[in-house]
Amino acid sequence: MRKATFYRLFWIYVICGVAGYCIETIWCWIDFQEFSSRTSNLFFPISCVWGLGGVLFYCLTLKNRWNNGVYLFVKCTILGAAFEFLRGYLGEHILEVTFWDYSGMPLHIGKYINIPFCLVWGLFGVLWVRKICPFIKQKLDRPAKEQTRPLFLAFVIFMAASQVLTGAALLRMHERQDGQAAENHAEQMLDQYFTDQTLQSFFPKMKSTVTGEKIYVSSRAE
Q: Which of 76, 81, 79, 73 is CA-nearest to residue 110?
C-alpha cells in the first residue's frame, strides 16, 4: 500500500470514527437522557464501527460519485446493514457479548439490524459520496509537511497500540467470564487494570450473550 493511500485511509478511519462516537453519544443523551460512552477504544474517543464503515464506504464507492442518488442510497443501506450485522455477529461469537441490541426496538431484524438505522447508513452514504468524501479527499491530498510526519507516525502507533490493548482487555474479560485464571504476568496486569467494572464503564451497553446481563453487576461486588 502506498504511503499516500495509507495516510488517506487512516485519517478517514479517525475522522469517521470520532464523528460516529459523537453522534451516537449525543443520540443516547437525547433518547435516554443519560451519558453513555460509545467508544470502541479505552484510550481514545472513537467508534471502530463508524471508522471502519467510513473506510469501507470509501473503498466501495470510489467510482460511484456520479451514480443515481437512489442507487447510491440502496447500495449504502445494504452495505451499512451488512457491516453492522457482521460486527455484531463477530462480537457475539468471539467475545460472547453484545455491544448493542435492537431486538427491543420496532422494525428490527434480529439483534444487530434495525431498518431505520439502515436508512441512516444509506443517507450517510449518499452524503459521504457526494459531499463529505470529496471535501476530505481534497484536504488529505495536500502534501504533509515534513515536520508533522513524526507526529503522524506517533499517532498511528498510539492508535494501533491502544486498539490492540483494548482488544486484549476484552479477550481477557471473556476468559475471566469462563473462569480461566491468569496464566502469565501480562494477563495479571490486564486483570488488575482492566477489571470487568472498568470495561463495563467504558462499554455501558455491553451484555453477555450467555446470561443476558451486563458483564459487571454491582451486586456481585457487595
A: 81
Q: What is the mean pLDDT of residues 104-117?
A: 84
Question: For residue 97, which of 220, 202, 222, 19 has the smallest C-alpha distance?
Answer: 202
In terms of DSSP bridges, do strands 113-114 and 97-98 run parallel, antiparallel, or are they unpaired? unpaired
pLDDT digits (tens, 9 = 90+) for 153-171: 999 999 999 999 999 999 9
Residue 143's pLDDT is: 63
Hey, is 208 helix, strand or coil? strand
The answer to whether residues 45 and 87 touch, using CB atoms and an 8 Å cutoff, is no
The set of residues, in sequence order, having a beta carbon less than 8 Å from that of 19 and lying 6+ positions away, is 50
DSSP letter string, 59-107: HHSTT-TTS-HHHHHHHHHHHHHHHHHHHHHHIIIIISEES---TTSTT
